[in-house]
Amino acid sequence: MIPQYLIDFDLQDLPVVETDVIVVGSGIAGLYTAIEGSTDRKVLLITKKTLLESNTRYAQGGIAAVTAEDDSPAYHRQDTLLAGAGLCSSTAVDVLVNEGPAGVQELIRLGTMFDVEDGVLALTKEGAHSHRRILHANGDATGYEIVRALSKQVEHLPNVTVWDDHFVIDLVTRENECLGALVQMPDGSRVFVRGQATVLCSGGAGQLYRYTTNPEVATADGVAMAYRAGAEIRDMEFIQFHPTALSYPGAPRFLISEAVRGEGAYLRNIKGERFMDRYHELLELAPRDIVARAIVSEMEETGSTFVYLDITHESPEMVKHRFPTIYETCMRYGLDLTTDWIPVSPAAHYMMGGVKTGLHGESSISRLFACGEVSSTGVHGANRLASNSLSEALVYGRRIVDQIRQLPETPAEPVPLSFSWQRKEAPSQAIVERRLKLQKVMVRYAGLRRSKDTLLRAIDDLNRQLPLFQSELTKREEYEFANMLTSSLLVIQSALRREESRGAHYREDFPQRDNEGWRKHIVHVWDQGMTEEFSDDV
């Protein structure tokens, strides 16, 4: 049993910090929401490391929005729905494609320097997009440029207070209303932060897997704390694996952007053969899940741990200009993108599911919102279309702030709330060992390809870790592991329930899509288990 809170507490014994809006996380969602909210509210932005450490920072490909004359929101909508494999919310997608271009203009106003060619915004094309609509910055450093620009803004806003190196342990709720959060300070002391609204912008779940393109901070904290708080959590079985992460001894699983294939790169197996024609008519530009599984099939067939990405047939000048970060990173390991085939393999990349929200980022708990990768707005369905995530964070961040402005104020009376669980001493086994074991279980049994047997094995293995919740947790890495364990079990339980293959979820024992039985979402609620709801995708 997973308890409602990770720690025992009595709010009357804790110091209280009051603010209008609590923003948890500092990626594009957190930074932009903080900027928007600060125009007429006091905002406290809490990040467990620093302002610059988030998944956004590592986003290479770019941001998808309609800016070209030959493109339209209708085309962008069609591409998004197609990639989402029947599980997108068509109304949520309409919001994204129609409001995304204004979000991009807002980023430019806030100081983001997108690449320009001949006086107009430079656009590229990525997998499953029908038009060139991906804006990028410094070639392949789009995420870093956006975070740079937004962080600079935040640092000069008098209404925004930033807490670096603080950990949000849990959300405090009463009668289905979020009152604020329990926060651990850098010195280990704890405080109750009380807010009129709380916005989760805490990012994704890549660290659930042994191989991931995500940074160390992506431990699914927001999903787990929202689940414990009683919020509806949706679509957790859909974890997107990026097909092409660098797979080289001594190198991190560095992301080799989709845009490299968008500019003409080939995939070759260990024998040097191009193989995507055996899997999809769009070849290297097929949807990510298809490309990732094709790579795994080729690796198994040839007994290799990687395939090659080959862009050596394009001009060296174009490659260096378009992909400077990727080029320099590969060179650091003795690999020249312009002359060498680059060894790649799939790695966990993006969580489509998360905290279920409405069209204004509102969760099922009053005054609790979610934005960015932690949310499940319905935009991504069963498989996110490349580069839609950054624009989603902008569009829904603005909508969340609009909604917060409509909220009535709550009185600042003391909250007589406490929680006690039968906790023992500190965890017996080292957290670093537990974490590695969990990551290996998830890769082996709940990764790109799943079956009833592997998923049951995964549940069995992870259930043995549940006594952790009886322990007294005091350190950041202990809270992170508790969140990873919680979120992993949600992923596995959903994957076991969905007896079909769709988008990023592939069951070897149910390899076909079943629209009649499974065009619906799986929703988890902490004290109610799993339910199903039909998709409104048209």
Key features of this structure:
single chain, 538 residues, alpha+beta, FAD/NAD(P)-binding domain, seven-stranded mixed beta sheet, five-stranded mixed beta sheet, steroid dehydrogenase activity, acting on the CH-CH group of donors, Fum_R/Succ_DH_flav-like_C_sf, pyridine nucleotide biosynthesis, flavoprotein, Succ_DH/fumarate_Rdtase_cat_sf
Molecular structure report:
- By secondary structure, this protein is of the alpha+beta class.
- The protein folds into two domains: 1-238 and 352-411 and 424-538, FAD/NAD(P)-binding domain (3-Layer(bba) Sandwich), CATH 3.50.50.60; 244-347, Flavocytochrome C3, Chain A, domain 1, CATH 3.90.700.10.
- 32% of the residues lie in helices and 20% in strands.
- It contains 14 helices and 23 strands.
- The strands form six sheets. Strands 2, 3, 9, 10, 11, 12 and 19 form a seven-stranded mixed beta sheet that branches.
- β2 (16-24), α1 and β3 form a beta-alpha-beta unit.
- α1 (28-37) packs parallel to α4, α3 (90-109) crosses α10 and α11 packs parallel to α13 (476-497).
- The longest helix has 22 residues, at 476-497.
- It is globular.
- 54% of the residues are buried.
- The mean pLDDT is 94.
